[in-house]
Amino acid sequence: MGVRKRCEVLRARIDRARALLQRAKELPHRVEALDRHLAAIDAELHATRDDVGAVQSGLDRVIATVGESRQGIVELRDSVHVAARRSALRRRPTRVLFLAHLVGVWDSYHALVESMAGSDDFEPIVASIPRRFPGLDGLSGEEDVHRGLTDRGVPHLRFTDGDPCDVLRLIKAIEPDVIFRQSQWDADIPEELGTERLGFARTCLVPYETMNIVVNVPDSRTHNTAVDSDYHRVAWLVFCTNEMMLETAVRDGARGGAQFRLVGHPKADHLRASRPDWPVCSTADGPPPLGRIVWSAHHTIAQGWTDFGAFHIMRDGMLAWARQCADVQFVFMPHPLLLQVPDSSASPLSRLDFDAWMQEWADLPNTAVLSEADYGPTLAASDIMVTDGLSMLVEYQLFDKPVIFFEREGHRPFNAIGEQVVTGVHTVHTVDEVRRLAETFVGGEPDPLRFRQRDNMQRLFGAGFSAERILAALRQEIARERGEADSVAAARRGRRSSGRQEAPKATRNRRPAGLDHAGEAPARG
């Protein structure tokens, strides 16, 4: 490289060095500017954080105000309801509204409504309402209730699937003195017809089940929803079947069972009076069936509730049995909710599989399905009950016929009443055992448990006349609230003579003798 070229290279390097030195001299000014920018950003962030804190505090105050306002509204509504109830029961006849969301358990009220309609001192009004079952979306089923009540000849209003607020306004316009619901479960019906919203009238309950036979799943407020739900706690009167249920209410109820009355159960009276009517048709020239078997299936086939339902375990074996024994007739009697459970994500059985099984069952000439219907005549005409629980373990013993209990492992334990009930049933764990035992009874072998069943039914249901006992209890309480001096005489006034045997008096709640022993705690169911 020549001298000139080297001088140019050196000059270029010197120029670059001067530029770098110039930038280095300017760097502190840039760093200072950067510090100013960062400080401004930090101040903005602090201000924003303060604004967010202020907004959050404001929201907390709003939420607290809303909570206080809602509590105030609830307290105000409760006070208005108390005043409304005190002004009721002054007119005659007493107006009683029955809200029906499940026609399959209407037998608990049918005789009572008929008795009221035949009296001078009560005005019964029946209304069909939609329902909502756990695990399923939306309200539905009012059309089914309407058809069922119509088939039974029950005059009724229709509170359809429209705006529930309109339904509540209509109910208030009717001005009922007393309201009966079919169950204590608020989750099963429109929210506007829940416990809190019906407090303007005196609420009553005849339980849809004849008695509770298991240790119920506790909720956040009570360990025994069979006698101490929110609805039980605020009810005017709750009618129970036997001394054991009354003892349970006294022991577990927040009010010590003060609102409970011992009356028996109208469903038991209805079943006892049912005339046989078998839904499976035999051919005119064919021989009579060797046996008539009812298979009742509970809805709790998923996990997490009472867990008695075993349809998903039994279905294939029962279908095979019906196919192989054309000379035996079968009626499948699913709990109404079982028909909808396959739509739930918790179901162990898909809707496709369930519907396919139902079709196969329906295609057989010796089978039928009965649901949302009066099942008393079918039970009366049958020979044997096969069931996984719960109500049929009790109710079928009224017919003095064999009950075969398919017991699913892991179900909720029986309480004291349930332990009494299962002394009258044959417990098995496979469909093969069910079949062998049923064939023994179909072949003419008498049921060795029939005498135990009779003792159970006498102890658990008594002599009957339940609807009359309920009316007697209502008349007694109405007379007391009206301030009539002679409650018994007032209870008899307005009762039309029916020519029937005088019903036993309703038993007013008292502390059962079994709980009177000092220092002796009752066993929990």
Structure description:
The chain is an alpha/beta fold and 525 residues long. The protein is 43% helix and 12% strand. It has 16 helices and 14 strands. The chain has helices at 3-87, 110-117, 142-151, 164-174, 230-234, 243-252, 266-272, 311-324, 351-363, 376-381, 391-395, 416-421, 431-442, 450-461, 466-482, 487-492, and strands at 94-100, 122-128, 157-158, 178-181, 202-205, 237-240, 260-262, 291-297, 328-334, 367-369, 384-387, 403-406, 426-428, 507-508. The chain has an 8-stranded mixed sheet. The protein has a 6-stranded parallel sheet with strand order 10-9-8-11-12-13. Helix 2 crosses helix 15 (466-482). It is elongated, with a radius of gyration of 35 Å. The N and C termini lie far apart (110 Å).
- Find the structural class using helix and strand composition: alpha/beta
- Write down the overall geometry: elongated
The whole-angstrom Rg is: 35 Å
Largest sheet: 8 strands, mixed
Could you tell me the strand content as a percent range?
5-15%
Order of helix and strand elements from N to C terminus:
HEHEHEHEEHEHEHEHEHEHEHEHEHHHHE
Termini separation (Å)? 110 Å
- Pick out the low-confidence regions: 490-503, 510-525
Task: Count up the helices.
Answer: 16
| Major beta sheet, strand line-up | 3-2-1-4-5-6-7-14
Would you tell me the overall average pLDDT?
Answer: 85
Helix content: 40-55%
Q: Kindly state the number of beta strands.
A: 14
List the helices and strands and how they pair.
Elements: H1 3-87, E1 94-100, H2 110-117, E2 122-128, H3 142-151, E3 157-158, H4 164-174, E4 178-181, E5 202-205, H5 230-234, E6 237-240, H6 243-252, E7 260-262, H7 266-272, E8 291-297, H8 311-324, E9 328-334, H9 351-363, E10 367-369, H10 376-381, E11 384-387, H11 391-395, E12 403-406, H12 416-421, E13 426-428, H13 431-442, H14 450-461, H15 466-482, H16 487-492, E14 507-508
Parallel strand pairs: 1-2, 1-4, 2-3, 4-5, 5-6, 6-7, 8-9, 8-11, 9-10, 11-12, 12-13
Antiparallel strand pairs: 7-14
Helix pairs in contact: 2-15
